[in-house]
Amino acid sequence: MQPIQPARGTRDLLGEEQRRHAHVIETARRVAGLYGYDEWVTPIFEDTRVFSRSLGETSDVVSKEMYSFPDRGGDSITLRPEGTAAICRALVTNGLTQSLPQKAFYAGPMFRYERPQKGRYRQFHQVGAELIGAAEPLADAETIALGRDILRALGLENDVALELNTLGDAQSRADWRAALVGYFHEVADGLSEESRKRLERNPLRILDSKSPADQALVADAPLIEPFLSEPARVFWDQLRAALDGFGVSFRHNPRIVRGLDYYSHTAFEFVTEKLGAQGTVLAGGRYDGLVADMGGPQTPAIGWAAGVERLSMLLDHAPAAPSGIAVVPAGDAAEAMAAQVMQTLRAAGLRAEMAYRGNLKKRMERANRIGAPFAVIVGESEAVRGVVQLKNLADGTQDEVPIVGLAARIAGACSAR
Ligand code: ATP
Ligand code: MG
User: Fold this and answer.
1) What is the pLDDT of residues 340-379, one digit of tens each?
2) Atom of ligand 1 nearest to the CA of 284
3) Measured from the CB, is residue 205 less than 6 Å from ligand 1?
4) What positions does the domain Aminoacyl-transfer RNA synthetases class-II family profile occupy (predicted)?
Protein backbone atom coordinates (compact mmCIF):
# COMPACT_ATOMS: atom_id res chain seq x y z
CA MET A 1 0.00 0.00 0.00
CA GLN A 2 1.20 3.54 -0.76
CA PRO A 3 1.91 5.48 2.42
CA ILE A 4 -0.29 8.55 2.82
CA GLN A 5 1.77 11.75 2.68
CA PRO A 6 1.27 14.73 5.02
CA ALA A 7 -1.13 17.36 3.62
CA ARG A 8 0.58 19.94 1.38
CA GLY A 9 2.25 22.71 3.34
CA THR A 10 2.26 20.80 6.66
CA ARG A 11 5.24 19.24 8.38
CA ASP A 12 5.97 16.86 11.20
CA LEU A 13 8.25 18.18 13.92
CA LEU A 14 10.49 15.42 15.21
CA GLY A 15 13.82 15.18 16.94
CA GLU A 16 16.16 18.07 16.29
CA GLU A 17 13.52 20.12 14.48
CA GLN A 18 11.13 19.93 17.42
CA ARG A 19 13.92 20.79 19.86
CA ARG A 20 14.58 23.96 17.86
CA HIS A 21 10.90 24.86 17.89
CA ALA A 22 10.55 24.19 21.59
CA HIS A 23 13.62 26.30 22.31
CA VAL A 24 12.18 29.25 20.38
CA ILE A 25 8.82 28.99 22.13
CA GLU A 26 10.25 28.47 25.62
CA THR A 27 12.65 31.38 25.20
CA ALA A 28 9.86 33.69 24.01
CA ARG A 29 7.61 32.60 26.88
CA ARG A 30 10.35 33.16 29.46
CA VAL A 31 11.31 36.63 28.21
CA ALA A 32 7.65 37.67 27.89
CA GLY A 33 7.30 36.67 31.55
CA LEU A 34 10.06 39.13 32.44
CA TYR A 35 7.91 41.84 30.83
CA GLY A 36 4.86 40.88 32.90
CA TYR A 37 2.99 38.85 30.27
CA ASP A 38 0.58 36.01 31.04
CA GLU A 39 -0.06 33.23 28.54
CA TRP A 40 -3.48 33.05 26.87
CA VAL A 41 -4.63 30.01 24.93
CA THR A 42 -7.50 30.57 22.50
CA PRO A 43 -9.16 27.94 20.30
CA ILE A 44 -7.56 26.76 17.06
CA PHE A 45 -10.83 27.50 15.24
CA GLU A 46 -13.18 30.44 15.61
CA ASP A 47 -16.38 31.84 14.13
CA THR A 48 -15.24 33.09 10.69
CA ARG A 49 -16.38 36.62 11.55
CA VAL A 50 -13.61 36.95 14.17
CA PHE A 51 -11.20 37.24 11.25
CA SER A 52 -13.35 38.54 8.39
CA ARG A 53 -14.47 41.54 10.47
CA SER A 54 -11.04 42.55 11.62
CA LEU A 55 -8.25 41.66 9.19
CA GLY A 56 -9.83 43.50 6.25
CA GLU A 57 -11.78 41.95 3.39
CA THR A 58 -9.12 42.90 0.87
CA SER A 59 -6.17 41.62 2.89
CA ASP A 60 -4.41 38.60 1.38
CA VAL A 61 -5.26 36.58 4.45
CA VAL A 62 -9.03 37.08 4.24
CA SER A 63 -9.36 37.23 0.46
CA LYS A 64 -7.41 34.08 -0.37
CA GLU A 65 -5.61 32.40 2.51
CA MET A 66 -8.23 31.42 5.09
CA TYR A 67 -9.20 27.84 5.84
CA SER A 68 -12.93 28.45 6.20
CA PHE A 69 -15.63 25.80 6.02
CA PRO A 70 -19.18 25.22 7.18
CA ASP A 71 -19.21 22.72 10.07
CA ARG A 72 -21.82 20.01 10.34
CA GLY A 73 -24.23 22.40 12.02
CA GLY A 74 -23.88 24.92 9.20
CA ASP A 75 -21.80 27.49 11.11
CA SER A 76 -18.92 29.07 9.23
CA ILE A 77 -15.71 28.11 11.00
CA THR A 78 -12.15 29.30 10.26
CA LEU A 79 -8.87 27.72 11.33
CA ARG A 80 -7.12 30.72 12.85
CA PRO A 81 -4.74 32.43 10.41
CA GLU A 82 -3.27 34.66 13.14
CA GLY A 83 -3.55 35.32 16.85
CA THR A 84 -4.38 38.97 17.43
CA ALA A 85 -8.05 38.98 16.42
CA ALA A 86 -8.72 35.95 18.62
CA ILE A 87 -6.98 37.55 21.62
CA CYS A 88 -9.21 40.63 21.19
CA ARG A 89 -12.25 38.39 20.87
CA ALA A 90 -11.19 36.62 24.08
CA LEU A 91 -10.67 39.93 25.90
CA VAL A 92 -14.23 40.96 25.08
CA THR A 93 -15.98 37.62 25.68
CA ASN A 94 -14.16 37.10 28.99
CA GLY A 95 -15.26 40.52 30.24
CA LEU A 96 -11.73 41.88 30.59
CA THR A 97 -12.30 45.21 28.83
CA GLN A 98 -12.69 46.89 32.24
CA SER A 99 -9.47 45.36 33.64
CA LEU A 100 -6.85 47.04 31.53
CA PRO A 101 -4.09 46.88 30.66
CA GLN A 102 -3.82 43.20 29.79
CA LYS A 103 -0.61 41.62 28.55
CA ALA A 104 -1.23 38.40 26.64
CA PHE A 105 1.46 36.05 25.33
CA TYR A 106 0.46 33.20 23.02
CA ALA A 107 2.09 30.37 21.09
CA GLY A 108 0.58 27.88 18.68
CA PRO A 109 -0.22 26.76 15.15
CA MET A 110 -1.74 29.09 12.53
CA PHE A 111 -3.24 28.13 9.17
CA ARG A 112 -3.02 29.94 5.83
CA TYR A 113 -3.66 28.57 2.37
CA GLU A 114 -0.40 29.78 0.80
CA ARG A 115 1.99 28.43 -1.80
CA PRO A 116 4.38 26.36 0.32
CA GLN A 117 8.08 27.20 0.09
CA LYS A 118 11.01 27.45 2.46
CA GLY A 119 9.83 29.47 5.46
CA ARG A 120 6.20 29.52 4.22
CA TYR A 121 3.79 26.74 5.15
CA ARG A 122 0.07 26.14 5.36
CA GLN A 123 0.30 25.13 8.99
CA PHE A 124 2.97 27.18 10.73
CA HIS A 125 3.55 28.38 14.28
CA GLN A 126 3.68 31.78 15.87
CA VAL A 127 4.55 33.22 19.22
CA GLY A 128 3.01 36.60 19.90
CA ALA A 129 2.51 39.32 22.46
CA GLU A 130 -0.40 41.74 22.79
CA LEU A 131 -0.52 44.70 25.17
CA ILE A 132 -4.13 45.84 25.33
CA GLY A 133 -5.31 49.03 26.97
CA ALA A 134 -2.32 51.35 26.65
CA ALA A 135 -2.36 54.24 24.19
CA GLU A 136 1.04 55.71 25.02
CA PRO A 137 4.05 55.47 22.69
CA LEU A 138 5.96 54.13 25.70
CA ALA A 139 3.84 50.98 25.41
CA ASP A 140 4.77 50.59 21.73
CA ALA A 141 8.44 50.99 22.56
CA GLU A 142 8.30 48.44 25.39
CA THR A 143 6.47 45.94 23.18
CA ILE A 144 9.12 46.30 20.49
CA ALA A 145 11.85 45.98 23.14
CA LEU A 146 10.28 42.66 24.19
CA GLY A 147 10.58 41.41 20.61
CA ARG A 148 14.17 42.56 20.43
CA ASP A 149 15.02 40.86 23.74
CA ILE A 150 13.55 37.56 22.61
CA LEU A 151 15.62 37.69 19.41
CA ARG A 152 18.64 38.58 21.53
CA ALA A 153 18.00 35.68 23.93
CA LEU A 154 17.90 33.39 20.88
CA GLY A 155 21.32 34.66 19.84
CA LEU A 156 19.90 36.30 16.70
CA GLU A 157 20.57 39.94 17.47
CA ASN A 158 23.22 40.27 14.78
CA ASP A 159 21.13 38.48 12.17
CA VAL A 160 18.10 40.77 12.31
CA ALA A 161 17.40 44.48 11.96
CA LEU A 162 14.38 46.44 13.14
CA GLU A 163 12.53 48.46 10.49
CA LEU A 164 9.99 50.94 11.78
CA ASN A 165 7.31 53.11 10.27
CA THR A 166 4.28 55.13 11.25
CA LEU A 167 0.87 54.71 9.61
CA GLY A 168 -0.46 57.80 11.37
CA ASP A 169 -4.00 58.15 12.70
CA ALA A 170 -7.24 57.88 10.73
CA GLN A 171 -7.06 61.49 9.53
CA SER A 172 -3.46 61.15 8.34
CA ARG A 173 -4.26 57.91 6.54
CA ALA A 174 -7.33 59.38 4.82
CA ASP A 175 -5.26 62.29 3.44
CA TRP A 176 -2.40 60.00 2.43
CA ARG A 177 -4.83 57.56 0.85
CA ALA A 178 -6.22 60.31 -1.38
CA ALA A 179 -2.70 61.15 -2.54
CA LEU A 180 -1.97 57.47 -3.20
CA VAL A 181 -5.15 57.02 -5.23
CA GLY A 182 -4.17 60.05 -7.35
CA TYR A 183 -0.67 58.68 -7.92
CA PHE A 184 -1.68 55.10 -8.68
CA HIS A 185 -4.41 56.24 -11.09
CA GLU A 186 -1.74 58.00 -13.12
CA VAL A 187 0.42 54.87 -13.34
CA ALA A 188 -2.45 52.35 -13.37
CA ASP A 189 -1.43 50.88 -16.76
CA GLY A 190 1.74 49.52 -15.18
CA LEU A 191 0.05 47.95 -12.16
CA SER A 192 -0.70 44.25 -11.84
CA GLU A 193 -4.32 43.32 -12.40
CA GLU A 194 -4.72 42.55 -8.74
CA SER A 195 -3.40 45.95 -7.72
CA ARG A 196 -5.76 47.69 -10.17
CA LYS A 197 -8.57 46.03 -8.22
CA ARG A 198 -6.95 47.08 -4.95
CA LEU A 199 -6.88 50.66 -6.21
CA GLU A 200 -10.65 50.74 -6.01
CA ARG A 201 -11.06 48.80 -2.80
CA ASN A 202 -7.98 49.41 -0.65
CA PRO A 203 -5.12 51.37 -2.26
CA LEU A 204 -2.81 51.02 0.78
CA ARG A 205 -2.72 47.32 0.06
CA ILE A 206 -0.80 48.02 -3.19
CA LEU A 207 2.14 49.12 -1.05
CA ASP A 208 2.35 45.59 0.35
CA SER A 209 2.22 43.91 -3.09
CA LYS A 210 4.82 41.25 -3.80
CA SER A 211 4.63 41.73 -7.62
CA PRO A 212 7.91 43.20 -8.97
CA ALA A 213 6.07 45.52 -11.40
CA ASP A 214 3.99 46.94 -8.55
CA GLN A 215 7.03 47.28 -6.35
CA ALA A 216 8.80 49.43 -8.94
CA LEU A 217 5.84 51.83 -8.98
CA VAL A 218 5.47 51.71 -5.23
CA ALA A 219 9.02 53.01 -4.92
CA ASP A 220 7.88 56.41 -6.21
CA ALA A 221 4.51 56.55 -4.45
CA PRO A 222 3.89 59.42 -2.00
CA LEU A 223 5.01 58.77 1.58
CA ILE A 224 2.78 59.31 4.60
CA GLU A 225 5.07 61.69 6.42
CA PRO A 226 3.84 64.99 4.86
CA PHE A 227 0.26 63.91 5.62
CA LEU A 228 0.75 63.19 9.33
CA SER A 229 -1.66 65.12 11.54
CA GLU A 230 -0.18 67.02 14.46
CA PRO A 231 -1.11 64.34 17.06
CA ALA A 232 0.23 61.60 14.78
CA ARG A 233 3.50 63.45 14.34
CA VAL A 234 3.86 63.90 18.11
CA PHE A 235 3.19 60.18 18.63
CA TRP A 236 5.82 59.28 16.04
CA ASP A 237 8.41 61.54 17.69
CA GLN A 238 7.64 60.18 21.15
CA LEU A 239 7.86 56.59 19.93
CA ARG A 240 11.34 57.10 18.55
CA ALA A 241 12.49 58.82 21.73
CA ALA A 242 11.02 56.00 23.86
CA LEU A 243 12.82 53.37 21.77
CA ASP A 244 16.07 55.13 22.53
CA GLY A 245 15.12 54.90 26.20
CA PHE A 246 14.81 51.11 25.87
CA GLY A 247 18.11 50.95 23.99
CA VAL A 248 16.43 49.65 20.82
CA SER A 249 18.00 50.71 17.54
CA PHE A 250 15.94 50.84 14.36
CA ARG A 251 15.86 52.05 10.79
CA HIS A 252 12.95 54.13 9.50
CA ASN A 253 11.50 52.30 6.51
CA PRO A 254 8.64 54.40 5.10
CA ARG A 255 7.51 51.45 2.91
CA ILE A 256 6.34 49.22 5.73
CA VAL A 257 2.54 49.02 5.76
CA ARG A 258 1.89 45.44 7.02
CA GLY A 259 -0.51 43.03 5.38
CA LEU A 260 -3.52 43.37 7.65
CA ASP A 261 -5.96 46.27 7.82
CA TYR A 262 -6.06 46.92 11.50
CA TYR A 263 -2.85 48.87 12.10
CA SER A 264 -2.44 52.56 13.00
CA HIS A 265 0.55 54.64 14.13
CA THR A 266 3.29 52.09 14.77
CA ALA A 267 4.22 49.38 12.24
CA PHE A 268 7.45 47.41 12.47
CA GLU A 269 9.27 44.33 11.24
CA PHE A 270 12.40 42.56 12.36
CA VAL A 271 13.97 41.34 9.11
CA THR A 272 16.90 39.14 8.17
CA GLU A 273 18.82 38.68 4.95
CA LYS A 274 19.43 35.03 5.72
CA LEU A 275 16.04 33.64 4.66
CA GLY A 276 15.63 34.97 1.13
CA ALA A 277 12.14 36.23 0.32
CA GLN A 278 10.79 35.00 3.67
CA GLY A 279 12.89 37.51 5.59
CA THR A 280 10.41 38.90 8.12
CA VAL A 281 10.71 37.00 11.39
CA LEU A 282 8.77 39.17 13.87
CA ALA A 283 6.29 41.87 12.95
CA GLY A 284 3.48 43.91 14.36
CA GLY A 285 2.07 47.28 15.19
CA ARG A 286 -0.63 49.31 16.91
CA TYR A 287 -4.23 48.27 16.35
CA ASP A 288 -6.50 50.68 18.20
CA GLY A 289 -9.68 49.66 16.38
CA LEU A 290 -9.64 45.90 16.78
CA VAL A 291 -11.25 45.43 20.20
CA ALA A 292 -14.17 47.60 19.02
CA ASP A 293 -14.43 45.40 15.88
CA MET A 294 -15.05 42.49 18.27
CA GLY A 295 -17.94 44.32 19.91
CA GLY A 296 -15.95 45.76 22.81
CA PRO A 297 -15.36 49.41 23.72
CA GLN A 298 -12.82 51.50 21.83
CA THR A 299 -9.52 50.19 23.27
CA PRO A 300 -5.95 50.98 22.25
CA ALA A 301 -3.55 48.06 21.76
CA ILE A 302 -0.16 47.13 20.37
CA GLY A 303 1.39 43.74 19.61
CA TRP A 304 3.43 41.52 17.34
CA ALA A 305 3.77 37.95 16.13
CA ALA A 306 6.87 35.99 15.19
CA GLY A 307 7.21 32.99 12.90
CA VAL A 308 8.61 30.05 14.87
CA GLU A 309 9.72 28.12 11.74
CA ARG A 310 11.73 31.10 10.48
CA LEU A 311 13.35 31.68 13.87
CA SER A 312 14.15 27.97 14.18
CA MET A 313 15.94 28.06 10.84
CA LEU A 314 18.10 30.94 12.01
CA LEU A 315 19.31 29.24 15.20
CA ASP A 316 22.94 28.39 14.65
CA HIS A 317 22.67 25.11 16.49
CA ALA A 318 19.91 22.88 17.75
CA PRO A 319 19.64 22.17 21.46
CA ALA A 320 21.38 18.83 22.15
CA ALA A 321 19.30 15.70 22.36
CA PRO A 322 18.96 14.76 26.01
CA SER A 323 20.76 11.56 26.93
CA GLY A 324 19.75 9.35 29.80
CA ILE A 325 21.37 6.84 32.12
CA ALA A 326 21.42 3.33 30.61
CA VAL A 327 20.38 0.73 33.16
CA VAL A 328 21.78 -2.67 32.21
CA PRO A 329 20.76 -5.91 33.92
CA ALA A 330 23.57 -8.48 33.97
CA GLY A 331 21.36 -11.37 32.85
CA ASP A 332 17.60 -11.87 32.71
CA ALA A 333 17.32 -12.69 36.39
CA ALA A 334 18.42 -9.14 37.28
CA GLU A 335 15.77 -7.43 35.13
CA ALA A 336 13.31 -6.88 37.95
CA MET A 337 16.06 -5.40 40.14
CA ALA A 338 17.17 -3.21 37.23
CA ALA A 339 13.62 -1.95 36.79
CA GLN A 340 13.61 -0.91 40.45
CA VAL A 341 16.93 0.89 40.09
CA MET A 342 15.58 2.69 37.00
CA GLN A 343 12.49 3.82 38.95
CA THR A 344 14.74 5.11 41.77
CA LEU A 345 16.68 7.23 39.27
CA ARG A 346 13.52 8.59 37.63
CA ALA A 347 12.03 9.42 41.04
CA ALA A 348 15.17 11.49 41.66
CA GLY A 349 14.55 13.41 38.42
CA LEU A 350 17.09 11.62 36.24
CA ARG A 351 16.35 10.38 32.72
CA ALA A 352 16.87 6.60 32.72
CA GLU A 353 16.24 3.89 30.14
CA MET A 354 16.63 0.16 29.81
CA ALA A 355 16.70 -1.94 26.64
CA TYR A 356 13.93 -4.51 26.43
CA ARG A 357 16.12 -7.41 25.36
CA GLY A 358 19.70 -8.53 24.69
CA ASN A 359 22.64 -9.84 26.67
CA LEU A 360 25.00 -7.67 28.72
CA LYS A 361 27.31 -7.01 25.76
CA LYS A 362 24.49 -6.01 23.41
CA ARG A 363 22.96 -3.74 26.00
CA MET A 364 26.29 -2.06 26.74
CA GLU A 365 26.80 -1.46 23.01
CA ARG A 366 23.41 0.18 22.87
CA ALA A 367 24.21 2.36 25.89
CA ASN A 368 27.26 3.69 24.04
CA ARG A 369 25.32 4.16 20.82
CA ILE A 370 22.62 6.33 22.40
CA GLY A 371 25.28 8.53 23.98
CA ALA A 372 24.44 7.68 27.59
CA PRO A 373 26.92 9.37 29.94
CA PHE A 374 26.65 6.50 32.46
CA ALA A 375 25.62 2.87 32.52
CA VAL A 376 24.36 1.31 35.73
CA ILE A 377 25.04 -2.43 35.65
CA VAL A 378 22.74 -4.36 37.92
CA GLY A 379 23.90 -7.85 38.93
CA GLU A 380 21.51 -10.06 40.83
CA SER A 381 23.74 -10.93 43.80
CA GLU A 382 25.19 -7.43 44.02
CA ALA A 383 21.73 -5.89 44.03
CA VAL A 384 20.78 -8.13 46.93
CA ARG A 385 23.73 -6.54 48.79
CA GLY A 386 22.32 -3.11 47.82
CA VAL A 387 25.05 -2.14 45.35
CA VAL A 388 25.43 -1.73 41.57
CA GLN A 389 28.31 -1.04 39.18
CA LEU A 390 28.39 2.56 37.91
CA LYS A 391 30.30 2.88 34.66
CA ASN A 392 31.31 6.27 33.32
CA LEU A 393 31.00 5.75 29.56
CA ALA A 394 33.03 8.85 28.73
CA ASP A 395 36.24 7.66 30.42
CA GLY A 396 35.51 3.97 30.94
CA THR A 397 36.01 4.03 34.73
CA GLN A 398 33.75 1.83 36.80
CA ASP A 399 33.09 1.44 40.52
CA GLU A 400 30.71 -0.13 42.97
CA VAL A 401 28.10 2.27 44.34
CA PRO A 402 25.35 1.72 46.93
CA ILE A 403 21.87 2.02 45.36
CA VAL A 404 20.82 4.48 48.07
CA GLY A 405 23.44 7.00 47.01
CA LEU A 406 23.31 6.29 43.28
CA ALA A 407 21.08 9.14 42.10
CA ALA A 408 22.96 11.76 44.14
CA ARG A 409 26.28 10.44 42.87
CA ILE A 410 25.17 10.59 39.21
CA ALA A 411 23.53 14.00 39.61
CA GLY A 412 26.73 15.31 41.19
CA ALA A 413 28.88 13.91 38.40
CA CYS A 414 26.55 15.32 35.70
CA SER A 415 26.54 18.81 37.18
CA ALA A 416 30.33 18.75 37.51
CA ARG A 417 30.77 17.90 33.81
P1 ATP B 1 4.62 37.55 4.81
O2 ATP B 1 4.75 38.94 4.27
O3 ATP B 1 5.92 36.78 4.91
O4 ATP B 1 3.51 36.76 4.14
P5 ATP B 1 2.77 38.35 6.85
O6 ATP B 1 2.80 39.82 6.79
O7 ATP B 1 1.66 37.62 6.18
O8 ATP B 1 4.18 37.73 6.33
P9 ATP B 1 2.14 38.26 9.67
O10 ATP B 1 0.71 38.01 9.46
O11 ATP B 1 2.58 39.57 10.16
O12 ATP B 1 2.96 37.86 8.34
O13 ATP B 1 2.75 37.12 10.62
C14 ATP B 1 3.87 37.33 11.46
C15 ATP B 1 5.00 36.38 11.14
O16 ATP B 1 4.52 35.05 11.02
C17 ATP B 1 5.69 36.64 9.83
O18 ATP B 1 6.62 37.66 9.95
C19 ATP B 1 6.36 35.31 9.57
O20 ATP B 1 7.56 35.18 10.33
C21 ATP B 1 5.33 34.34 10.09
N22 ATP B 1 4.52 33.80 8.99
C23 ATP B 1 3.47 34.38 8.36
N24 ATP B 1 2.96 33.57 7.42
C25 ATP B 1 3.70 32.41 7.47
C26 ATP B 1 3.65 31.16 6.75
N27 ATP B 1 2.72 30.91 5.83
N28 ATP B 1 4.59 30.22 7.07
C29 ATP B 1 5.52 30.45 8.02
N30 ATP B 1 5.61 31.60 8.72
C31 ATP B 1 4.71 32.57 8.46
MG1 MG C 1 1.47 36.65 4.31
Assistant:
1) 999 999 999 999 999 999 999 999 999 999 899 999 999 9
2) 11
3) no
4) 1-329
